[in-house]
Amino acid sequence: MNYHFIQNLNLNIRVNTETTRMAQAKIPFKVMEELIKNTNSVANNVTMFYKDDSNRETLNHEQLKLMLPAIQEALLTLISNIENDFWVGKYIQVLYPGNPNNKDSGLVRYTHPYQHNGMNIEVVLNYKPNVLGGPFYPERPGAIINHWKEQVF
């Protein structure tokens, strides 16, 4: 398995099930560290974006616990394939085209199907395409994420 250096992960996570429609997932720092670690990665900058005025629901603690395996698989699939141009062309949807010379611009989406106990789950990862970079080193011994931020939009 390859080791990944995530330079910038600017991410909004939503989950679709039979009972939740595009519910946003608020991921706590320690949980995000585990998710990143389980993708065989370290991250320099991670920003989780949340809508404060959304008409959509936010997963509660129990719902989030149940959805973590699906979110983990979606994130692992994305990070493992993000450098594969064929995969990106097939599975990544451009929401807002950015400047091709500035990967900090633009917004893209990966939608990951997941099944558990007969339930169909869809994990939607909206992110800026400036994900990978490096190498860099943890700023604290054993750190998985150097800089963490949660931002409401």
Folded structure, characterized:
The protein is of the alpha/beta class and 153 residues long. 24% of the residues lie in helices and 37% in strands. It is built from 3 helices and 7 strands; from the N terminus they run E-E-H-E-H-H-E-E-E-E. The chain has helices at 29-37, 61-81, 85-91; strands at 4-16, 23-24, 41-50, 92-96, 107-116, 119-127, 145-152. Strands 1, 2, 3, 4, 5, 6 and 7 form a 7-stranded mixed sheet that branches. Strand 1 (4-16) and strand 2 form a beta hairpin. The radius of gyration is 15 Å and the shape is globular. The N and C termini lie far apart (35 Å).
Distance between the first and last residues' Cα: 35 Å
Net shape: globular
Strand content: 35-45%
- Identify low-pLDDT runs: none
Based on secondary structure, the structural category is: alpha/beta
Q: Biggest β-sheet: count, sense, barrel?
A: 7 strands, mixed
| Beta strand count | 7
- How large, in whole angstroms, is the Cα Rg? 15 Å
**Number of DSSP helices?**
3
Mean pLDDT: 89
**Helicity range of the residues?**
10-25%
Write the layout of secondary structure elements.
Blueprint: E1 4-16, E2 23-24, H1 29-37, E3 41-50, H2 61-81, H3 85-91, E4 92-96, E5 107-116, E6 119-127, E7 145-152
Parallel strand pairs: 1-3, 3-7
Antiparallel strand pairs: 1-2, 1-6, 4-5, 5-6
